[in-house]
Design brief:
Blueprint (H helix, E strand, L loop, with lengths): L28 H12 L7 H14 L6 H21 L10 E4 L6 E4 L2 H21 L6 H24 L10 H26 L5 H25 L10 H28 L4 E2 L2 E2 L1 H8 L11 H6 L1 H27 L2 H4 L2 H21 L70 E4 L5 E5 L4 H10 L8
Antiparallel strand pairs: 1-2, 3-4, 5-6
């Protein structure tokens, strides 16, 4: 996990990337040569350069760079597979090529002759590469956050497209359950980036701004909690790396703690202007939507108007924040891999220390009625993540085997017989047929009673026609 993180010195919570699926080499030479000879009736040696180009392209896409160029290389091969499918894969004949791929998390090998397996695996790697690009962004600035958001949304879109369009997955990483988990994980990481952007761009420390940060943090906590539930389902529990499940749980606790911290900051650090019995409209509206529910016996307006009630409620939030921080640190300590990530430990320790210090500031010796629990904060976000589907048209490719002829005619699904020569003798009415196109010329129609009709009818009946 750590190898894919940003090299920036800025302290930010690490993200979860995926490693690429690995694959064995595939030699298309003999199968394609045989198909060209038998199906298209051509000399296969004339297409040695095309076969070599295809093999080199596949070899290159096995180790793409962690950049836009790497994504374009994978997409180029993915798009080329469309032409390969049309040219050489038919329902009545198998090309005889085996595709070997390894599970991205366990390394368990899988093998299939179906080209759909090859296409699905390449698309999986496109999504995985997006996760690596997203994880390496420097999120200390909004430009890096925006790039991370874009990368994780595209990863979610590719995983979702794979889930909806590819079935009968031979490996667990491409199963519907696993892909659903990965989509949710990517959406959660986008939501985390949204929170980070708001913390950077929120210049003021107004009451309503702090409430917004608290609700954004609660939203991040909720989506990570949902991811953790997915990861702990049967089948997934023994499949997902322990470090992933631990990281997701740590983040859920960490951002829940932050939500309570910002709630306390709003209540205790800022005064709200009042007009008689009512607080100002903006603060009142924001606070009314802030909690899932509120204890009976007091209204939110009463709390806002009473400094002591605000202090006690803020202290209750900080108490929950400290408890959540400590739970995040406890879960973190149980995972050997996470313990090695110094940046994550620094973040957890710093935020815990900040909440604890603020709690001690509000603590008083005469607080004997410290029994109230802080209400649950209503999760809310200003920007819901998008799932960006893959755009296959961004990388334009040409059919490597275009010299075989137009794909509409010279495809694997067309039934071809042995080539035959029919000699037509021109009459007064011509050859008796109409032609269209070029390389190859296609017969558009046959004139009734003409030379072509007579000759073709004889050919169909098995009459041998000698070359004049």
């Amino acid at each position: 996990m750590e190898v894919y993180q940003t090299d920036s010195d800025a302290i930010s919570v690490p993200m979860i990337p995926l490693g690429l699926k690995e694959t064995k080499e595939v030699d298309f030479t003999v199968p394609i040569q045989d198909f060209i000879c038998e199906h298209y009736g051509e000399d296969s040696s004339l297409y040695d350069n095309e076969i070599k180009e295809l093999i080199e392209l596949r070899q290159a896409m096995r180790t793409p760079s962690r950049s836009q160029a790497g994504l374009e290389l994978l997409m180029e091969y993915y798009n080329q597979l469309y032409y390969l499918d049309q040219r050489f894969f038919s329902s009545h004949r198998n090309l005889g090529v085996h595709f070997h791929w390894y599970d991205s998390l366990t390394g368990v090998p899988s093998s299939q002759r179906a080209l759909a397996f090859e296409k699905g695996s390449v698309l999986f790697n496109i999504a995985a590469l997006h996760t690596q690009i997203g994880a390496r962004q420097d999120r200390a600035a909004t430009s890096g956050i925006d790039k991370a958001v874009d990368a994780f949304q595209r990863a979610a879109g590719a995983f979702n497209y794979l889930k909806e369009n590819f079935s009968n997955a031979p490996s667990l990483d491409m199963s519907a359950l696993s892909l659903s988990m990965l989509v949710r994980l990517m959406v959660a990481q986008v939501q985390e980036c949204v929170f980070e952007r708001i913390t950077i761009t929120t210049r003021d420390t107004k009451f309503t701004s702090q409430l917004q940060l608290a609700q954004e943090a609660a939203q991040v906590s909720d989506v990570y909690s949902l991811v953790h539930q997915t990861m702990t389902q049967p089948l997934m529990k023994d499949y997902v790396p322990f470090s992933w499940a631990s990281m997701v749980q740590v983040k859920s606790e960490h951002f829940r703690a932050l939500s309570h911290y910002y709630a306390a900051a709003a209540l205790c650090d800022h005064t709200v202007s009042f007009d008689g019995e009512e607080c100002d409209n903006e603060s009142d509206k924001a606070f009314l939507k802030f909690y899932v529910n509120i204890a009976s016996g007091q209204t939110l307006s009463q709390i806002l108007q009473d400094p002591e009630k605000r202090r006690k409620l803020g202290k209750a939030h900080l108490r929950r924040a400290v408890m959540r921080h400590e739970e995040a640190m406890r879960v973190h300590s149980l995972c050997k891999i996470l313990r090695k990530m110094d940046i994550l430990q620094d973040v957890l320790c710093q935020t815990h220390k900040r909440s604890l210090e603020k709690y001690l500031e509000l603590d008083r010796e005469d607080d004997f009625d410290e029994t109230a629990e802080a209400p649950e904060i209503q999760a809310h976000t200003q920007q819901k993540p998008d799932i960006t589907p893959p755009s296959f048209t961004t990388v334009q490719v040409s059919d490597i085997f275009q010299r075989l002829g137009p794909l509409s005619v010279f495809c694997a699904r067309a039934r071809w017989g042995p080539p035959r020569v029919i000699c037509l003798q021109k009459r007064d009415g011509g050859m008796g047929l109409t032609l269209r196109g070029d390389s190859p010329v296609l017969v558009a129609g046959v004139v009734p009673g003409g030379c072509a009709e007579v000759r073709l009818t004889a050919c169909v009946k098995g009459v041998s026609l000698k070359k004049n």
